Amino acid sequence: MKAVLIDLDGVIYQADQPIPGAQRTLDWLKARRIPYLFVTNTTSRPRDAVVEKLRLMDIQIKPQEVLTPVVAVAGWLNTQGAVTIASFLPKTTQKDLSQFAQWAGTDDGCVSAVIVGDLAEEWSFGELNRAFRLLMSNPDCPLLALGLSRYWRSVQGLQLDVGPFVKALEFATGRAAIVFGKPSRDFFQQALTMLDVKASEALMIGDDIRGDVGGAQAAGLKAALVKTGKFQQTDLSGDIVPDGILASFAELPAYWKSLE
Length: 260
Ligand SMILES: [Mg+2]
Prior knowledge:
The strands form 4 sheets. Strands 5-4-1-13-14-15 form a 6-stranded parallel beta sheet. It has a 5-stranded parallel beta sheet with strand order 7-6-8-9-12, sandwiched between helices. It has a two-stranded antiparallel sheet with strand order 2-3. Strand 10 and strand 11 form a beta hairpin. The N and C termini lie close together (7 Å). The chain has 9 helices and 15 strands. The protein is α/β, with parallel strands linked by helices and 260 residues long. The mean pLDDT is 93. It folds into 2 domains: 3-41 and 183-259, HAD superfamily/HAD-like (Rossmann fold, 3-Layer(aba) Sandwich); 80-179, 3-Layer(aba) Sandwich (Rossmann fold), CATH 3.40.50. Magnesium ion (MG) binds next to loops.
């Protein structure tokens, strides 16, 4: 095993608190010169805000160590020569897509892509219907999903994530979304390319049995599940079997030893 892909929410921090031992484990990775990359499905804030949020918890990471679906989608839109987009993302995250013109016209316009992220409290029937109508008015307009997570755990409890809204649009339009973010195989491949390792040489560590563990395994990686964040005991009785189960990210050094 040569490198580690690390989920952030639920692995490094939970709500507004760091997971005990997280920074120590990151220091251990650095000391051992084990390459790592944070792979997060966060679309509620831009990459530099993710870094700042962690800094406030005394966890030091760099923007270039973080792969988000928005960063991945911006790269893809560039290859497609996209001009005008309609993105359903919180205003702060739109910043990472500021190189593209944001559609501000009617619901029936022709845009290069409809991008759906975690709009959370800002979702309304009107917003979801606007995305639907933009897709219906142009059969060639791709639906780009920033992850397919079903839900996450906030301070208030479980919250719907981006997946249910993407599925609603897929169902209504009969069109399949292109997924950027976990559990998409392409997203894991993009992370491996950034680390310059093969799938068989990397371990994914996350708290989401489907997005992190199932997604990574389908892409050919080994994957360990942590019992923090959104972990539930029932995760262990489903169809996905993690290669390792850790009480928390702090157990990574001991687990790593067992892989050598
Ligand atoms: Mg997570």
